[in-house]
Amino acid sequence: MPTLPLWFEIGAFAVLGLILLADLLLVIKRPHTPSMKESGLWVAFYVALALVFAGLMFAFTGPEYGGQFVAGWVTEYSLSIDNLFVFIIIMARFSVPKPLQQGVLMVGIVIALILRGIFILLGAIVIEQFSWVFYIFGAFLLWTAYKQAKDDGSDEEEGAENPLIAKLRKVLPMSDKYVGTKVRTVVDGKKVFTPMLIVFITIGVTDLLFAVDSIPAIFGLTQSAFIVFTANIFALMGLRQLYFLLGGLMTQLVYLKHALSVILAFIGVKLVLHAMHVNELPFINGGQHIEWAPEIPTFVSLGIILGTMAIAVVASLLSPAGKQAKIDARLKADAEAAAAGEDNKSLV
C-alpha cells in the first residue's frame, strides 16, 4: 500500500472537491453549448492536472504507485470515453436541447462519482478480507470483455429506454417540454414532472452499469483505495467537455470497443494470476500460494493499455468504416445546421 502522508490525501481530495464544485457552479450559472476551443482548453487543463498529480504520486510514493495511478487513470479514462457513446444516444433519444446537455452531463458525473465511491469502499473492504474475490473479479472482467467484443452497438440503441423508464412514463404525470434542468414544473395549475427526470434516471442507471465494470478493472491494477478513487475522479473530470470536443469524432472510433475488450481481458487475466499468486482457497493447490503464477509489472500493464488504445485510435481513423462514419457525421451536422436555420427563419 502507498505510504502517502495524511495531509497529501486530505489536501488532494479537498482540491479536487473544490474544482468539481466550481465546475458545477459554472454549469448552473452559465448553461450553454461550449465551443470546440473552450472544450479543448478544459480537456487539456484536466489532462494536465492529472499529469501533475501523477508527478506528485511519483515524487511521494515512487515509480510503482505512480505507475499504478497512471495505468488506472488511462484505463478509467478509456472506459469513460465509452460512456460518452451511450450519453450521446441518451441525449438524442430524449431530444435534450444542447444548452441543457452540459447540466445533464454534470449531474451524470456527480452520480457516477457517488456510485463509484460506494463501489470502491465496498471493493476495498472485500479485497482486504477475502483475497479469493480476485478470482471473481477476473472471471467477471473476462466475461465482460467477451460481451464487449461481440457488442455491435444495437443493444445500446434499444436500451436507451428500458422497461423501467417506459413504465415511469406511463405512471408519472409528465410535461411535454423541458424547463431548464428542473425535474418538476407546473402545468395548468398542476405539479408535474419534466422529461429531465427520465433523462437523469437513465444517466444514473448507465453510470451504475459502467461502475460495475470499471471498478473491478482498476482493482486489477492497484489495491489502493486512494489511487482507485483519485484515478476515477480524474477520469470523470473533463468528461463533460470531452463530450462536446469529440462530438462526431467518437463515431469514427469504430475499434474502441474492441480495444476496451482487449484491455478488460488483459486485466482479467492479470487478476486471475494475482489470485493464484495469493491463493488461499483450500480446493486450489491445497490452499497454498501458486508460486509459478507470474505477477505482471505495473509498467508492462501501462504499456499494454496505452499501446492498445493507440492502435485502436489509429486503425479506426484509417479504416474505411471510420472514414464513412466521419462522412455520415458531417452530413448529419449539416442537416442539423440547415434545420436550425429553417427554424430561425420561421421565428423572424
Structural write-up:
The protein is built from 14 helices and two strands. It has 348 residues and is mostly helical. The protein has one domain (6-341). It has a two-stranded antiparallel ribbon. The longest helix has 32 residues, at 98-129.
Short summary:
With about 350 residues, the protein is mainly alpha-helical. The protein is about 75% helix and about 0% strand.
Quickly list its features.
348 residues, mainly alpha, two-stranded antiparallel sheet, globular
Give the SSE layout.
Layout: H1 6-29, H2 36-61, H3 63-93, H4 98-129, H5 133-150, H6 154-158, H7 163-171, E1 184-187, E2 190-193, H8 195-219, H9 225-236, H10 239-246, H11 249-252, H12 256-277, H13 298-318, H14 320-347
Antiparallel strand pairs: 1-2
Helix pairs in contact: 1-4, 2-3, 2-10, 3-8, 3-9, 3-12, 3-13, 4-8, 4-9, 5-12, 12-13, 13-14
String of helices and strands: HHHHHHHEEHHHHHHH
Q: By helix and strand content, what is the structural category? A: mainly alpha
Number of E-type strands = 2
Q: Count of helical segments? A: 14
Number of domains: 1
Radius of gyration: 22 Å
Mean pLDDT: 78
User: How much strand?
Assistant: under 5%
Which ranges are low-confidence, i.e. pLDDT below 50, for 5 or more consecutive residues? Answer: 155-160
**Shape category:** globular
Oligomeric assembly: single chain
State the share of residues found in helices, binned by percent. over 70%
| Measured distance between first and last alpha carbons | 65 Å
Strand order of the largest sheet: 1-2
Largest sheet: 2 strands, antiparallel
